[in-house]
Specification:
The protein contains 5 helices and 14 strands. It has about 290 residues and is of the alpha/beta class. Helix 3 links the parallel strand 5 and strand 6. It starts with a strand and ends in a 26-residue tail after the last helix.
C-alpha cells in the first residue's frame, strides 16, 4: 500500500511518499543571473529507499526529507516516495533523483515508465549505489555506467581523492580537487554509444575489498546524454558515485555541485537552484493532501 503525506505534516520520515512545493518566489536583487526568469520551476521527483547500513550511512529517508526542503527552498517543485514513481508521478517531473540501494532492480512496469520518461527528455540523477543491479548493461543505458550486484566492486570506507577532469563544465563551477571519506566503485559497466562525459575521477584506495584494483583511476562524477529513439528529445543524466556517508551531501564543495547537476539534468541553467529563496507569507510550501 502506498501511503502519502505532505511535508507540512512530516514529523517522521519513514513513510512512503512526501511532496512539497511553493509558488515561484520573487527573485532577490542580483539573483537574476542565477535563474532565467522565463524558465518554469524545476519539477523534481525523489526516489528514496528504506534506511540501510550503520548510523550515518545510506540514510535514504533522511535525504528525502532534507533535500525535498532544500530544493523547495530554491524554487523547485518537489515530490517523492520510497517507491519507484508511477507513470502519473513521473509525468509531472522534469528530473528523477534516485538515492536508494540497487535501483537497477526494475520491474517491467517500472522499466517501461522510466523508458517513456527518458524518451520525452526527462532528466535522471543517480547517487551512490543507485546504479547497482542485476543487469548493469541496462542501467548503464540510462545513466552511462552501472555496477553488478553481488560482485566485490567497492572500496568500503576509504579516502576518495577527486581529480577534476573538466573544470569548464558548469556543474563543476568553482570545484577544485578535494578528498572525502566515503566509498568508491570500480569494475564498472560503461555505455559505449554514447560514452559518458567524465567530470572527476578518483584513485581507488588500497583496501582489502579493492584487491588488485587499488591504484586504478575510475570516473566517479560524470554526465551522460542520449536519445532513445531517432528524433526523440535527448535526455540528460548526472551521476555522483558517493553518498555512502550521508554527511558528505552537505560538504561545502559537494552540495553546490549536486544542485548544479540536478538543474543541468533538468535542462535549466546550472545555477538555477543556487539561490535560496525566502518563504512567502510564513508558509513553507503547499503540500498535496490527496491521492
Amino acid at each position: 500500500m502506498r501511503a502519502r503525506l505532505t511535508l507540512l505534516g512530516a514529523a517522521a520520515v519513514l513513510c512512503t511518499s512526501v511532496m512539497a512545493q511553493q509558488p515561484p518566489a520573487q527573485t532577490a536583487p542580483g539573483a537574476a543571473a542565477q535563474q532565467d526568469p522565463q524558465s518554469p520551476p524545476l519539477r523534481v521527483f525523489i526516489q528514496a529507499g528504506l534506511k540501510t547500513h550503520a548510523e550515518g550511512q545510506h540514510d535514504y529517508p533522511q535525504f528525502l526529507a532534507d533535500w525535498s526542503k532544500l530544493l523547495t527552498n530554491r524554487g523547485a517543485i518537489v515530490d517523492g516516495a520510497l517507491h519507484f514513481p508511477t507513470a502519473r508521478e513521473l509525468s509531472a517531473a522534469d528530473v528523477l533523483i534516485i538515492y536508494k540501494g540497487d535501483a537497477g532492480y526494475l520491474s517491467q512496469e517500472d522499466r517501461a515508465t522510466l523508458d517513456n520518461f527518458l524518451r520525452r527528455g526527462g532528466g535522471i540523477v543517480s547517487f551512490h549505489d543507485a546504479l547497482c543491479g542485476p543487469n548493469p548493461e541496462e542501467f548503464a543505458g540510462f545513466v552511462g555506467g552501472a555496477k553488478k550486484h553481488g560482485e566485490v566492486n567497492y572500496t568500503l570506507e576509504a579516502d576518495v581523492p577527486y581529480t577534476v577532469v573538466d573544470t569548464a563544465h558548469p556543474i563543476m563551477k568553482g570545484v577544485t580537487d578535494f578528498s572525502l571519506k566515503d566509498e568508491a566503485f570500480f569494475n564498472m559497466t560503461w555505455s559505449k554509444q554514447p560514452e559518458i562525459h567524465v567530470l572527476a575521477t578518483a584513485v581507488m584506495a588500497k583496501t582489502p575489498s579493492a584487491g588488485t584494483h587499488a591504484g586504478e583511476v575510475v570516473p566517479q562524477i560524470w554526465t551522460y546524454e542520449k536519445s532513445l529513439l531517432p528524433g526523440a528529445p535527448t535526455f540528460r543524466a548526472f551521476v555522483w558515485m558517493q553518498g555512502h556517508n550521508y554527511a558528505n551531501f552537505s560538504d561545502a564543495q559537494v552540495q553546490p555541485m549536486l544542485l548544479r547537476g540536478i538543474a543541468w539534468a533538468g535542462k535549466r541553467p546550472a545555477d538555477a537552484l543556487a539561490t535560496e529563496r525566502p518563504q512567502r507569507g510564513g508558509r513553507g510550501g503547499r503540500g498535496r493532501t490527496g491521492g
